[in-house]
């Protein structure tokens, strides 16, 4: 069903696709309003709380057709793996375009940027990511450079008018690709997501949600995009690297900085392209995209950029 249809109609049509709910449609309510800027939350799927009769509540994600290319085909498999490791909610439903998870009740809530700047919370998130990385690989490769290439190609095919200088930034990303390739990397099962709202907190623990981009990748990409989201000052970034690695090394921080810029660039292209191609014109895709591109431009134009490339 079109994303332009009313929410109630979209959810009812989705629930009717689940055999267990077809004859006794459960009650439902919006669980997360879609916001692209500044939260970047709930834009790939309608997120609803479903209350089956006699059953536990379910957090149901109903993917929008115009966002299908933004979700890896193995997202449910990745979410199940995270749940088995104790760092994600249990998957209770996996249908085409539908993903149901155990609903995390209060005091669970999604994290805000300010939460990530608390050293204890940041440490908990890094530990959760490290638990993913320590397990066996998923066997599904996620390459951030390939994603960037695909987004750039999509923008070109759609005739998207990009902010000035964006093509140059994409070219500079090629230097990062070559530097990482020369330095080498190990693959591990990664979340590949640094957005604050995809972390759930209850005051004592951490759960990771939204495995739409999960897959085997350099674990330092996970650390880098989280640092890029949360750390406004170098001292905070250094502390995060030290916590994850057990020591601080400049080359590790450099890798994180480069991955953060790459993530900014990819999400920037995503935002300005979705603003031109999505039917949901009420979501501020363009604002989010241009902000991420500005952040990428700032990092890639920093005086230390060439040094970071050389010291990986």
UniProtKB/TrEMBL annotation:
Aminoglycoside phosphotransferase domain: residues covered: 37-245
One Pfam entry name: APH
Name of the protein this chain belongs to: Aminoglycoside phosphotransferase domain-containing protein
Species: Methylobacterium crusticola
């Amino acid at each position: 069903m079109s994303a332009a249809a009313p929410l109630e109609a979209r959810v009812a049509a989705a629930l009717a696709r689940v055999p267990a709910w077809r004859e006794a449609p459960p009650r439902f309510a919006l669980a997360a309003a879609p916001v692209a800027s500044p939260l970047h939350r709930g834009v790939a799927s309608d997120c609803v709380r479903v209350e089956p009769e006699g059953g536990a509540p379910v957090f149901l994600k109903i993917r929008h057709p115009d966002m299908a290319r933004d979700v890896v085909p193995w997202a449910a498999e990745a979410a199940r793996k995270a749940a088995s490791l104790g760092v994600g909610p249990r998957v209770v439903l996996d249908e085409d375009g539908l993903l149901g998870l155990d609903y995390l009740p209060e005091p669970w809530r999604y994290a805000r940027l300010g939460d990530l700047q608390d050293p204890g919370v940041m440490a908990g998130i890094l530990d959760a990511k490290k638990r993913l990385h320590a397990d066996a690989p998923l066997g599904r490769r996620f390459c951030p450079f390939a994603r960037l290439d695909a987004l750039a190609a999509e923008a070109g095919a759609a005739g998207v008018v990009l902010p000035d200088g964006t093509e140059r930034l994409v070219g500079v990303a090629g230097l990062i690709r070559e530097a990482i390739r020369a330095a080498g990397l190990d693959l591990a099962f990664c979340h590949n997501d640094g957005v604050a709202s995809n972390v759930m907190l209850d005051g004592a623990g951490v759960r990771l949600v939204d495995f739409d981009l999960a897959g085997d990748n350099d674990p330092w990409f996970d650390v880098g995009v989280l640092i890029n989201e949360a750390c406004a000052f170098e001292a905070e970034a250094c502390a995060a690297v030290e916590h994850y690695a057990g020591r601080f090394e400049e080359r590790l921080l450099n890798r994180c900085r480069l991955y953060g810029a790459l993530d900014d660039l990819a999400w920037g292209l995503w935002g300005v392209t979705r603003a031109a191609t999505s039917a949901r014109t009420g979501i501020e895709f363009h604002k989010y995209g241009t902000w991420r591109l500005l952040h990428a431009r700032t990092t890639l134009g920093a005086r230390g950029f060439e040094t970071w490339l050389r010291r990986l």
